[in-house]
Design goal:
single chain; six-stranded parallel sheet
Length: 191
Amino acid sequence: MIIDGHSHVIIPTERHIRLMDDNGIDKTILFSTSVHPENVSNANELKVEMQKLNDIISGKRNAIDARKASMQELRNTINKFPKRFIGFASVPVGLDYNETMNYIENQFMGFNFLGFGEFTLASGQTRLLESIFKASSDRKKLPIWIHAFNPLVLSDIKEIAELAKSYSNVPVILGHIGGSNWLESLDAYFG
């Protein structure tokens, strides 16, 4: 079985399934998205769509309503194709532990999500993940998938490694193995 470890909802989903079939992929770990560059038709539309991503990464845009809409899109996709997709739940960062637990219980219980992520943070914000680590540790020990390439830098990756050591029962997926800091990332984890 071949599992794609990182993809976002592609609309229409049937196009995503065709891409998976064309490449021999049996299942995909699927994340929500508020950005759909697959639906643009020219460079200007692509710039507008990708600016939404830049706004999310920089913290200018992180509305709960947008998150809920993208999570509903993810739920619909997984419910329609449960044998093809594994869902990871999007949880807002920066909430305290009780708010994080309430959000998880109110938004995700009853849905078949098998992890949390993808978390894409600005540099200097990785400590905001602590309540998510603690919530995962106290619940089902679901994996946490963190985008560890730009805009994160080596000091951020080291902070994530410290969180992973503090919550050693929580699986951590360090996306892109730390990007251009991949060798140092390996040292931070395996030392």
